[in-house]
């Protein structure tokens, strides 16, 4: 049986800054070598390379600008806002233009590093034009890692939208009412319910293959449907009293002990699964798995920062590598229920014990044993009272003469 740490090992972490650090080290080593080999023309070479690196993207941005103005100015930019929207969208922002101008000024002031001035102009122009050509042909396009990093950083993945939709349109609405629903359910099922050993959280199952069964008992014979919690009715999007419901399941362990819990699959995974089987969506199985992992990480981050949903849910990943075990689902649910029971602590105070004789003398030995105990917090149940104001004494004493 795998530990719960395996779940954290499956979820990808956000990408860090290691590529930037490697680029800084590589640039520092290269610049140090150039300074040692040719210190006189170092600034000239830096200026010329900077001009080439900034002039190439500017030429490519002009090519993009021609397409946007001729064919998309009305549909994408509402026919205007050229300087504020179209130019930055094509990579012709103020920072790029400023960098190119500064590089040109530095090259003019430091001088030409090549023997002939025409060679410098020809090299800068040729490399910039070839950069724009290769960029347009896709030869210098971003790699899959760069695209993934951009989409994750800007929250542009399908998983981000599905996670936020699942939270705002469902979990954010129903989880605050879950505790009351469970209390009402226990009140009406006292005779047949064994909820004392069950979970009071909503168990959200997230299978990595996104293949969801509509009935949990079809996946595992040790799981059986018990009943539904009382419906939660909320006015939503013009629908009066829209009904939200949860199902209660009984999960049996190997010893035959039954535990009850509120359990369901993450519904947005059905969308990912159907998208992977639609050729028009351009969504394969490998992309689907990555999106499921991002969905889990995004939803976990959203719920951890939600005060309304805190301590009312439990996200459980289901690895598809254990499909040969017919009771894998029930074992996974029971493992999380056992972990939850270990994490819960009894917060109710112990009953107060009355002393037989409060004025009885305490022996030095018993007093020493009481002093050696662990300190406890003494809390008074009485209402706080204001400080008494000193009263003026009106009694007069007369001295006999």
Automatic annotation (TrEMBL):
Protein's cellular compartments: Cytoplasm, Perinuclear region; Cytoplasmic vesicle, Autophagosome membrane; Endoplasmic reticulum membrane; Endoplasmic reticulum-Golgi intermediate compartment membrane
Family the UniProt entry places it in: Belongs to the STING family.
Domain STING ligand-binding: from-to ranges: 157-341
BP GO annotations: activation of innate immune response; autophagosome assembly; defense response to virus; innate immune response; positive regulation of macroautophagy; positive regulation of type I interferon production; reticulophagy
Name the UniProt record assigns to this protein: Stimulator of interferon genes protein
GO MF annotation terms: 2',3'-cyclic GMP-AMP binding; cyclic-di-GMP binding
Domain STING transmembrane: 44-155
UniProt catalytic activity: H(+)(in) = H(+)(out)
Keywords in alphabetical order: Endoplasmic reticulum, Membrane, Nucleotide-binding, Transmembrane, Transmembrane helix
Keyword Kinase: no
One GO term describing the cellular component: endoplasmic reticulum membrane
Bilayer topology annotation: Multi-pass membrane protein
Domain of life: Eukaryota
InterPro entries in the cross-refs: STING, STING_C_chordates, STING_C_sf, STING_LBD, STING_TM
Transmembrane spans: 21-39, 45-65, 86-110
Pfam families in alphabetical order: STING_LBD (PF15009), STING_TM (PF23417)
């Amino acid at each position: 049986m795998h530990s719960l740490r395996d779940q954290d090992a499956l979820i990808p972490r956000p990408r860090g800054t290691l590529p930037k650090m490697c680029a800084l080290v590589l640039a520092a080593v290269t610049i140090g070598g150039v300074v040692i080999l040719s210190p006189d023309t170092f600034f000239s070479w830096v200026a010329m390379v900077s001009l080439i690196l900034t002039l190439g993207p500017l030429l490519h941005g002009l090519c993009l600008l021609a397409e946007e103005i001729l064919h998309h100015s009305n549909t994408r930019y509402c026919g205007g806002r050229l300087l504020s929207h179209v130019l930055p969208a094509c990579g012709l922002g103020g920072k790029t233009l400023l960098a190119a101008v500064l590089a040109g000024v530095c090259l003019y002031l430091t001088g030409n590093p090549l023997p002939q001035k025409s060679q410098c102009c020809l090299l800068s122009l040729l490399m910039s034009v070839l950069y724009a050509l290769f960029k347009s042909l896709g030869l210098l396009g971003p790699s899959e890692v760069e695209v993934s990093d951009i989409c994750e950083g800007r929250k542009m993945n399908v998983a981000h939208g599905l996670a936020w939709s699942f939270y705002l349109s469902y979990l954010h609405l129903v989880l605050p009412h879950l505790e009351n629903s469970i209390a009402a359910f226990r009140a009406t099922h006292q005779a047949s319910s064994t909820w004392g050993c069950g979970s009071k959280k909503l168990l959200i199952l997230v299978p990595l293959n996104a293949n969801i069964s509509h009935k949990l008992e079809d996946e595992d014979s040790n799981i059986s449907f018990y009943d539904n919690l009382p419906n939660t009715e909320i006015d939503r999007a013009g629908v009066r009293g829209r009904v939200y419901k949860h199902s209660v399941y009984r999960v049996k362990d190997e010893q035959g002990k039954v535990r009850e819990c509120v359990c369901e699959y993450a519904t947005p995974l059905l969308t990912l699964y159907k998208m992977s089987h639609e050729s028009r969506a351009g969504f394969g199985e490998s992309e689907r798995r990555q999106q499921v992992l991002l969905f889990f990480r995004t939803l976990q981050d959203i719920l951890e920062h939600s005060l309304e949903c805190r301590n009312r849910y439990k996200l459980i990943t289901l690895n598809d590598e254990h499909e040969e075990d017919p009771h894998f689902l029930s074992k996974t649910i029971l493992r999380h229920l056992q972990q939850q029971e270990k994490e819960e602590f009894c917060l109710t105070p112990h009953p107060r014990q009355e002393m037989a004789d409060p004025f009885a003398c305490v022996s030095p030995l018993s007093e020493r044993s009481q002093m050696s105990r662990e300190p406890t917090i003494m809390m008074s149940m009485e209402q706080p009272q204001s400080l008494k104001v000193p009263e003026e004494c009106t009694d007069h004493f007369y001295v006999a003469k």
